[in-house]
Design brief:
It contains 16 helices and ten strands. It is of the alpha/beta class. The strands form two sheets. Strands 1-4-3-2-5-6-8-7 form an eight-stranded mixed sheet, with helices on both faces. Strands 9-10 form a two-stranded antiparallel ribbon. A hairpin with a 1-residue loop joins strand 9 and strand 10 (about 360). Helix 1 (about 5-10) crosses helix 7 (about 140-155) and helix 9 (about 225-235) runs antiparallel to helix 15 (about 345-350). It is globular and about 50 Å long.
Length: about 375
């Protein structure tokens, strides 16, 4: 491990906006019986406490180790939360009794960015919308360091970061606590459908803590992940708010950059799929019922905010896709793979091989980006 990483990890311990819970405690009762974290249902109080945190570098509360997942019977849970000002009373049952009333008073929406990396989107959205609270989630502490340091130095009271595996997300948020979820350049997880952040498994998790009418945003360079998510929406009757397969040049600019022209194989599929010719236009393949949207239907920050990865992809000429949809759905979510409405092999062939750092497949490209980031 590099010395700079050790420095970042040490500094992470001083950031009051960063929670680093213990996975061991979360999993104490097994993977399928996650223990709820002490902050679950209390994010409003957590954000309230950030306004009282001293400037970075002065003595103040530290988050790591003081907000670990605690069993309901633990006497340490309320006292640890109370040390940060999250719980006001000495009686845990009294706090529970007043929880609903306090939530009625708390008007701010909570927005999550899952797989936030360095937190570019979380920070940018929080600065644009101070009336909302934003939480970036990632497992990489060295990446979160940058966003947490910026939020601390600029004293942003509506920004928090959570270092945990996204599979554990339900341990941190209570029903109705979250309004929106952003998925920015997530790993498409070609081999494992259940690992995709827009899979039925994850949509079930989001629905457990999102408000009715909650919105999921997917911004990605992966046409595979975009089309898979469209298929999930179509099969489950989810209301699509906006959808485009080329966010910046899909009919919204008179002339794409030269780099994009040179990648015409991405815009025209050279590998025929079922019922398609070798030159089938991908803009209609597998999603005719979800036409591209007009510029007015896409929120301003979808284009104006760009992550490190997105800028890199754009420089190389790869189209960026965007899809937003409402999470509401009665009953279990169905898989388009199991239903036969999404051709995994076809869309995987469309995804690669692709060029970025030399002659790389999508997998090796992402591995090099990961090493570059670390």
């Amino acid at each position: 491990m590099g010395h700079d990483k050790l420095r970042k990890f040490a500094e992470n311990e001083t950031f009051s906006c960063l929670l680093q819970p213990s996975a061991q405690e979360l999993l104490a009762d097994g993977y399928f019986h996650l223990r709820d974290h002490a902050v679950k249902g209390h994010w409003d109080r957590f954000f309230d406490s950030l306004a009282d945190v001293p400037l970075h570098g002065s003595s103040g509360p530290q988050t790591s180790g003081c907000a670990g997942p605690l069993p309901p019977t633990s006497s340490a849970g309320p006292s640890l939360l109370r040390s940060r000002g999250w719980l006001r009373s000495a009686d845990p049952t009294a706090d529970s009794a007043t929880s609903s009333a306090r939530k009625d008073e708390y008007q701010k929406d909570i927005v999550l960015e899952l797989g936030c990396g360095k937190g570019e989107y979380t920070i940018a959205l929080a600065e644009r919308h101070p009336e909302r609270d934003y939480i970036g989630v990632d497992i990489k502490g060295a990446r979160l360091w940058k966003g947490a340091k910026y939020a601390t130095e600029h004293r942003l009271p509506n920004v928090a970061f959570l270092r945990t595996r996204v599979e554990f997300i339900t341990a941190f948020f209570a029903p109705g606590e979250v309004s929106e979820v952003w998925l920015t350049f997530s790993d498409p997880q070609f081999r494992s459908e259940n690992s995709r952040l827009s899979s039925p498994l994850f949509l079930e998790r989001y629905r457990s803590f999102m408000k009715p009418g909650g919105v999921v945003h997917l911004k990605t360079d992966s046409r595979f992940l975009h089309e898979y998510t469209r298929a999930v929406c179509e099969l489950n009757g989810l209301r699509v708010l906006a959808c485009t397969t080329d966010l910046y040049y899909g009919g919204m600019s008179p002339e794409p950059p030269a780099a994009l022209k040179s990648l015409s194989d991405f815009a025209k599929c050279k590998v025929p799929g079922p019922g398609r010719s070798a030159d089938a236009d991908l803009s209609s393949a597998g999603g005719d019922c979800l036409p591209a949207c007009s510029p007015a239907e896409i929120p301003e920050e979808v284009r104006s905010v760009q992550t490190f990865y997105e800028k890199l992809f754009l420089e190389q000429g790869y189209p960026i896709t965007y899809l937003s949809f409402v999470i509401d759905h009665d009953g279990p979510y169905r898989s388009p793979v199991e239903a036969g409405t999404f051709d995994t092999d076809y869309w995987r062939s469309v995804e690669g091989p692709r060029l970025l750092f030399g002659h790389d497949s999508a997998e090796t490209r992402r591995q090099k980006l990961k090493l570059c980031d670390e």
